[in-house]
Design goal:
The structure is a single chain. The chain has 307 residues and is α/β, with parallel strands linked by helices. The protein has a single domain, classed as Spore Coat Polysaccharide Biosynthesis Protein SpsA, Chain A (Alpha-Beta Complex). It is 44% helix and 17% strand. Strands 1, 2, 3, 4, 5, 6, 7, 8 and 9 form a 9-stranded mixed beta sheet that branches. Helix 10 packs antiparallel against helix 11. The longest helix is centred in the C-terminal third of the chain and has 27 residues.
Amino acid sequence: MSKKILSICIPTYNRAECLKDCLNSIFYQLKNEQVLEKIEVVISDNASTDNTTEIVKSFQKQFNNILYFKNEKNLGFDRNLAKTVRESGGKYCLTIGDDDAFFDDVILFIIKRLETESIPFYGLNGWGYDNNLKETVLPHPNLNIQEDQKYEKLSDFVKSIKKYEDIVGIFTGMSTQLFLREKWADYKNKDEYLDTQVAHMFILLTIFKDLPYTQIAKPIIKTRSSNVRWVTMTGLETAQRRVVGTVSGLKWIRGKFDLPISNTKINVYFYVREYWFTFKEIIKRTLEITGFSYFIIYYRKIRNMLH
């Protein structure tokens, strides 16, 4: 297989049907020869017990640029993600969750950017969808920007972010990271952050801190809302633990990038915010269980109209 410019890296675990949607969104775009010749798809399966293997093999029969690795045991999220990057061979790696998907025709858009620019690290824009990837749950992309934001250093971008949740959220979102594989491979201290469930955030922010960064405005990824399986992520199973993890991550970023944010502001903001979100999630789940989920649809439509 010839050298590829882009490796699409997908860690997966027991999400065969979601993974099928993700792969369909990729391979629909392989009808374009410019895309087919220049990408590879690397899947690391964390010992799934569903029909993930059969789904992947059905795609492998049609396309020869899929690399599939099935772990003998579950390695945990961080190690599984790291394996996809380690087994890849592209110049750039794009990591994407097994439950997310690409918008139509965006892979060629990415390839053209990589071929004409020399930026080591890109942030991709996403757009939140429902769990069927049919309807948007937000009136605008996750980052509501109209044009690309280019920075001489990643640190300049981090310092420009106004909202606390965005400082963490932009970089913990695995499906919005596009980076030079060589830089990741050369970094020797990756093991320091494994098993934090967000090792990619720590690694990428460390590696690319003083290098050029571009935040792409065009929506690239469809992300499923409320589809994170917290119970499978050691240390983040409860709202309390997620707050502690988020606060810890933001404090780490604050120190790394010398951000003027006090401990008190961080603690109060995230504890109040997480418990409010947890309350809303309980209401949403209750409506779904009791057959009143149409209230959620109406709420979203009204909210989008008001925006």
